[in-house]
Design brief:
The two termini are about 15 Å apart. By secondary structure, the protein is an alpha/beta fold. The protein is about 40% helix and about 15% strand. It is built from nine helices and eight strands. It has one domain: Metal-dependent hydrolases (TIM Barrel), CATH 3.20.20.140. Helix 5 links the parallel strand 5 (about 125-130) and strand 6. The chain binds zinc ion. Zinc ion binds near residues 94, 130, 155 and 156.
Length: about 260
């Protein structure tokens, strides 16, 4: 298997003491490439730095997560655009709306999202999107950019059937994480993933968050890491009624095309 983890927060402090070992374990588990999520002013430049240390293997996104929307000043906008000028930075985001946690005020979230949508329109780079409990505003804001933005992936999809079909109707891509493996809140996804066409489906760990609850034996820690993508693709394939190798090959081809990754 040659997997691509499209969402790994590898600049997170919890990896500071053993990042190289984490990357090595990922390789050994078949995770050939990773897109390092940039989600704040602090971490987006770090994501680029990390990608530059591993050319052709690691890539980065540059953006500001709705949790950090309050930091999205004009200066921040210029900083993100400068990062996006680099070839290693393959997508705008993580950006979007999160009305579940409301860590930033909603008007600030909408403003930061709007500005990053404009950046996507101006640069032509794909969008790496976050949406939680904000479906209607999210779709309305995306609609304002119809025909002006490139491809978009709704990362860590955890929503309803209606939301999934609304996204697929708009030709957006769907990122599936180990949330699928959570018997308390992810059961509905087991059924929903059958409806996602292979050419719209990508996989991600969202490391260090969302350690899949079905990993056996259960690790002694809670930290997720990219090597568990191999477990996620197995679970996903079983739910879709296909073999893991097929699901892996399709998601890798989809991610390679979506992020316009150079051939290996
Ligand atoms: Zn997210």
């Amino acid at each position: 298997m040659q997997l691509i983890d499209i969402g790994a927060n590898l600049t997170h402090d919890s990896f500071d003491h053993d990042r190289d070992a984490v990357l090595q374990r990922a390789r050994e588990a078949g995770v050939a490439r990773m897109v390092i999520t940039g989600a704040s002013r602090e971490h987006s430049p770090k994501a680029l730095d990390l990608a530059r240390q591993h050319p052709g293997e690691l890539f980065a996104t540059a953006g500001v997560h709705p949790h950090h929307a309050s930091e999205y000043t004009a200066e921040c906008d210029a900083q993100m655009r400068a990062l996006l000028a680099h070839d290693e930075v393959v997508a705008v985001g993580e950006c979007g709306l999160d009305y579940f946690r409301d860590f930033s005020p909603r008007p600030a979230q909408r403003r930061a999202f709007e500005m990053q949508l404009q950046t996507a329109a101006d640069t032509g780079k794909p969008l790496f999107l976050h949406q939680r409990d904000a479906h209607d505003d999210f779709v309305a804001m995306m609609k304002n950019f119809d025909g002006r933005i490139g491809p978009a992936v709704v990362h860590c999809f955890t929503g309803t059937r209606e939301e999934l079909f609304a996204y697929l109707d708009r030709d957006w891509y769907i990122g599936i994480t180990g949330w699928l493996c959570d018997e308390r809140r992810g059961l509905h996804l087991r059924e929903l993933v059958k409806h996602i066409p292979a050419q719209r489906l990508m996989i991600e760990t969202d490391s260090p968050y969302l350690l899949p609850r079905t990993v056996k034996p259960a690790p002694s820690h809670r930290r997720n890491e990219p090597m568990y993508l191999a477990h996620i693709v197995e679970e996903l394939a079983r739910d879709r009624g296909e073999d893991a190798a097929t699901a892996a090959a399709h998601s890798t081809a989809t991610a390679t095309a979506f992020f316009r990754l150079p051939p290996r």
